[in-house]
Amino acid sequence: MRTTTTAVAAAALVLGLTGCSVGDTGGSTAPPRSSSGTSTPAPTAAASGDTSGTPSADGTTAATEAHTAEELSAVFRRIQFEPGEFDTTDAMLDSVYPGLTVSDASCLAPFGVGWDGDDTSGPIAFGTSNDRSMTAVVASTGDVEAATDLVGDARDALTRCADGSELFTMDGQRVETTVAPMRSTLTGTDESLGWRIRGTVGGAPFTLVGLTGRVGGDVVALVGWDPASNTTNVPLASQMFVDDL
User: Fold this and answer.
1) How remote is the C-alpha of 210 from its chain's centroid?
2) DSSP class of 55
3) Is 224 exposed, middle or buried (0-12, 13-18, 19+ CB in 10 A)?
4) E strand spans, 54-107
5) How far from the centroid of its chain's Cα atoms is residue 172's Cα?
6) Beta strand spans in 35-172 (E)
7) How far apart are CA 219 and CA 140, in angstroms?
8) What is the distance between the alpha carbons of residues 46 and 108, in angstroms, rounded to a whole number?
9) For the range 180-183, what are the long-range contacts, defined as Cβ-Cβ under 8 Å and sequence gap of 24 or more?
10) Cross-strand bridge partners of residue 128
11) What is the pTM of this model?
């Protein structure tokens, strides 16, 4: 288990998550959110992403020790995320971005969507941060090749589903998106990628920041919507997940 995240950084994130309610976003514009856990067409976007870090050495298949679902849930709670609240990753994202639909579900791979229905993903946990400004999905595959494939799916989606207005709609309105790579600052990963989406829906602007990182056979996908905090909290929370796996 890695312990490189400093106590100060951890305390800062925990205070931010536990001290901020959905209404405490400093007036920032954000996608509408609901508390519903019902599963409707899944949300958000994908983008062309920047990658940093290098896949493990020679790319050969290697088995790793997988975490149990209970261990993953414990990691979520330590980082102030709530696991087990939703039945599917689709339902989790729909609770944060209600009414958003996508024409190609594979474009949601950078959000970890579909990992819960993939037999190769192994034990999986997913949930929102306590302030609901971020979503996280962690899969512990127990296999380097399988984990590498999950990161590859996210990277492919970030390339295929980048900019435009044809992929996403919200309540019948087209969602305009522009994607830019974001350099990953994650340490202790075998590979990682980061991205930022800026867009508008119905004239209202929004910003999403995402990071995906692999540690051996474990993969974490974390996305934040709140422009007041996502550039800081997404890297910080992602690093805490990496350190705790």
Assistant:
1) 6
2) -
3) buried
4) 81-83, 100-102
5) 25
6) 50-52, 81-83, 100-102, 124-129, 134-140, 168-170
7) 7
8) 6
9) 180/47, 180/48, 181/48, 181/49, 181/50, 182/49, 182/50, 182/209, 182/211, 183/50, 183/52
10) 82, 135
11) 0.77
CA 25 to chain centre: 19
Pair of tokens at residue 155: 């990277």
Question: 215 and 235 in contact (C-beta within 8 Å)?
Answer: no
Q: Token pair of 200, please?
A: 């508008």
Task: Please report where in the chains the tokens 């229905």 appear, as a residue.
Answer: 117
Sequence-ordered list of residues with C-beta below 8 angstroms from that of 2, at least 6 positions apart, any chain: 188, 215, 242, 243, 244, 245
What does each of the 245 residues of the chain score in pLDDT, given as a tens digit? Answer: 444 333 334 434 444 444 333 333 333 344 544 333 333 333 333 333 444 444 444 444 567 789 999 999 999 999 999 999 999 999 999 999 998 888 888 889 999 999 998 877 889 999 999 999 999 999 999 999 999 999 999 999 988 887 666 788 888 888 888 888 899 989 999 999 999 998 898 888 999 999 999 999 999 999 999 999 999 999 999 999 999 99
